[in-house]
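User: Can you predict the 3D structure for this chain?
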Amino acid sequence: MGAFSETHHVFDDAGMKDVREWITSMEASLQKAEQVDKQYSGEIDTALAEYKNLTEQAAELDVDELNDSRQKLRPNMERDAMKRLQSGYMDKYKSEIMERSKRNIADLLGEDLPEKKSIHEQLRQDRPQQEPTRRKSKDKEQER
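Assistant: Here is the predicted structure, written as structure tokens:
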């Protein structure tokens, strides 16, 4: 029996008890994992069925009508969101971050936002409209 015990591990009663407890623990963990798998597979099946239903509904929608409705609602929704953000963040609110968020959303939706012009550019555009009226008044003064 000496050769047998040298080539194979001989466990005492305490070692076997530890192995049995480990096996029992692993079996319990396996059962819990199988229960979680069943739970999530059921939830995934439900979510997939809902997704399929929604994609079928989306196929029936008129894209132009949907975009028109979204464009009508968007300014009010943006204004409400901006007010809530301003009241929540108070002096920490930054309009630059809001503008960047609007651009990011437009990119995600595949929309083109009109580029915001700097105040300098806006003044430059407004100036040609104002200059003729000023010139007329100067011309009238010179005539007198």
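DSSP finds five helices and no strands in the chain. Helices lie at 2-7, 13-60, 63-89, 95-109, 119-143.
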